[in-house]
Design brief:
By secondary structure, the chain is an all-alpha fold. It is 37% helix and 0% strand. The protein is elongated and about 75 Å long. The model has no long low-confidence stretch (mean pLDDT 84).
Length: 76
């Protein structure tokens, strides 16, 4: 599992997004006379407040083909 290192500063401007999303955020900022940071902070805060992590355990069934000596399973 990859763990993201937290940044000690107040802002972190290196979060990447697609060009389409960036353009939409820019349009909102321009229309509402806001900065990109204000718009992205508002959208991210809303998204985080309305998101949840759902974990589930999965069982994997493994099948193998054995040809020949069926009694001696150590010869996979």
């Amino acid at each position: 599992m990859i763990e993201v290192e937290r940044q000690p500063k107040n802002t972190y401007s290196r979060i990447r997004c697609s060009n389409n999303i960036y353009d939409e955020i820019t349009n909102i900022a321009n229309e509402c006379d806001l900065t990109l940071k204000e718009v992205t902070d508002a959208l991210l805060n809303y998204g985080l407040a309305n998101a949840q992590i759902i974990s589930s355990e999965k069982v994997v069934t493994e099948s193998k083909l054995v040809i020949g000596d069926f009694d001696n399973d150590s010869n996979n």
